[in-house]
Specification:
The chain is of the alpha/beta class. The protein folds into 2 domains: 159 residues, Rossmann fold (3-Layer(aba) Sandwich); 214 residues, Rossmann fold (3-Layer(aba) Sandwich). Helices cover 41% and strands 17% of the residues. It has 16 helices and 14 strands. It has a 6-stranded mixed beta sheet, with helices on both faces. Helix 11 links the parallel strand 9 and strand 10. Helix 2 runs antiparallel to helix 4, helix 10 crosses helix 11 and helix 14 crosses helix 15. The mean pLDDT is 95. Bound molecules: pyridoxal-5'-phosphate (PLP). The site of pyridoxal-5'-phosphate has 21 residues, from helix 5, helix 11 and helix 15.
Length: 404
């Protein structure tokens, strides 16, 4: 029987399996040259993950370098304006470098050093992952090369300047739509050529096994903290969780520790200008299964199976793929995936800034827009946690600040 017809027991949820599959999704679809490197990475990760020294160094850096735990903030004004559930913001924007991406790069940098790799390759869309890579590279004395679509270097120019200040080499990518997908293509090309001495630091729960497992485990700290903090404040579990989904790392980081509870979960994608193929990046809610960047998951593709361009005002969501674990959780019905449009996200960007004095990243503004739509469907005694995945300082390009 295929897993789709089974009732999944989330109390014993333990995916991916040994071969890196979440049900049918995930796996490893890569050129031969990368197979030994992925095997070596998986074995280094599995050894490190159960090693107390690795765990204590990771915890120490999350706490003292990155500033964890991040607060769980009760957004009282926003909550009373919406007239429904109590809204809590998990403040990943307050961590070092201004987004959740640092959790993963600290973990992967520790791993790269254990593996003796000194050259780091990375891709970035919003520049937040690139910034987090450049930061850990500076701290640990590693060389970072960051691929970034030309369009993203223009709309996130502040992050390009920061990465360069930190000593990283930023390579603008002019192929395709000049955004995240094209940056990943170039990063993979570099990795295939320089696999002996380079470590590919993927920024989300995408790519071939073991990346979706590894990045999720590094990001689970978001949900583990949020669960404990909410319990301390409300002596309960939240009624719902909301997070934006690009590749899917901040969302799975928040959601994963709650999978076995009754908490409802909403993954929010970039609805772009409208839901016509090519005008949005709503991969899970509008796409279909296919292979992209080394794994099987929901992607955006045309009727010939060609990858379709994505579009979103948020560069970190502007990607035609998604993590394989999300694909599985969508098919099981455990998480509800939907999208909000560019215009709705921009309105939420302004709304949160003006009601709470918090300027959210344009990616996170998608989650804020969603909670603004659903809060009133919940009881006043209910709590909803929204992952505020990053801060909006980077989002002052004309497009975002003018709300076009
Ligand atoms: C602030 C912020 N939030 C969310 C995302 C989306 O990535 P993910 O879905 O992996 O969390 C990005 C990606 O760059 C980001 O910078």
């Amino acid at each position: 029987m295929r897993w789709k017809e089974q009732i999944v027991d989330f109390k014993n949820y333990n995916l991916p399996d040994e071969s890196g599959h979440f049900g049918d999704y995930g796996g490893s679809f890569v050129p031969e040259t990368l197979v030994p490197a992925l095997n070596e990475l998986e074995s280094a990760f599995r050894t490190a993950w159960v090693d107390e020294d690795f765990q204590s160094e990771f915890d120490h850096l999350l706490k003292n370098y990155s500033g964890r735990p991040t607060p769980l903030y009760f957004a009282d004004k926003l909550s009373s304006m919406l007239g429904g559930a109590k809204i809590y913001l998990k403040r990943e924007d307050l961590g070092h470098t201004g987004s959740h991406k640092i959790n993963n790069t600290i973990g992967q940098a520790l791993l790269a050093m254990r593996m003796g790799k000194k050259r780091i390759i990375a891709e970035t869309g919003a520049g937040q992952h690139g910034l987090a890579v450049a930061t850990v590279a500076a701290k640990f004395g590693l060389n970072a090369v960051v691929y970034m679509g030309r369009e993203d270097t223009l709309r996130q120019s502040l992050n390009v300047r920061k990465m360069e200040l930190l000593g990283a080499e930023v390579i603008p990518v002019d192929s395709g739509s000049k955004t995240l997908k094209d940056a990943i293509n170039e990063a993979i090309r570099d990795w295939v050529t320089n696999v002996e001495d380079s470590f590919y630091m993927i920024g989300s729960v995408v790519g071939p096994h073991p990346y979706p497992l590894m990045v999720r485990n590094f990001q689970r700290i978001i949900g583990l903290e949020a669960k404990k903090q909410f319990e301390e404040i409300e002596s309960a579990i939240p009624a719902a969780l909301v997070a934006c989904v690009g590749g899917g790392s901040n969302s799975i980081g928040l959601f994963h520790p709650f999978l076995s509870t009754d908490t409802e979960m909403y993954g929010v994608e970039g609805g772009g200008k409208n839901l016509e193929l090519g005008n949005h990046s709503a991969t899970l809610s509008e796409g279909s299964p296919g292979i992209l960047h080394g794994s099987l998951s929901y992607i955006l593709q045309d009727s010939n199976g060609q990858i379709s361009p994505a579009d979103s005002v948020a560069p970190g969501l502007d990607y035609p793929g998604s993590g394989p674990e999300h694909s599985y959780l969508k098919d099981c019905g455990r998480i509800q995936y939907s999208s909000v449009s560019d215009a709705e996200a921009l309105a939420a960007f302004k709304h949160l800034s003006r009601t709470e004095g918090i300027i959210p990243a344009i990616e996170s503004s998608h989650a804020i827009a969603k909670v603004m739509q659903i809060a009133a469907d919940y009881k006043k005694s209910d709590g909803i946690i929204v992952c505020l995945s990053g801060r909006g300082d980077k989002d002052f390009s004309k497009e975002v600040s003018d709300g076009e």
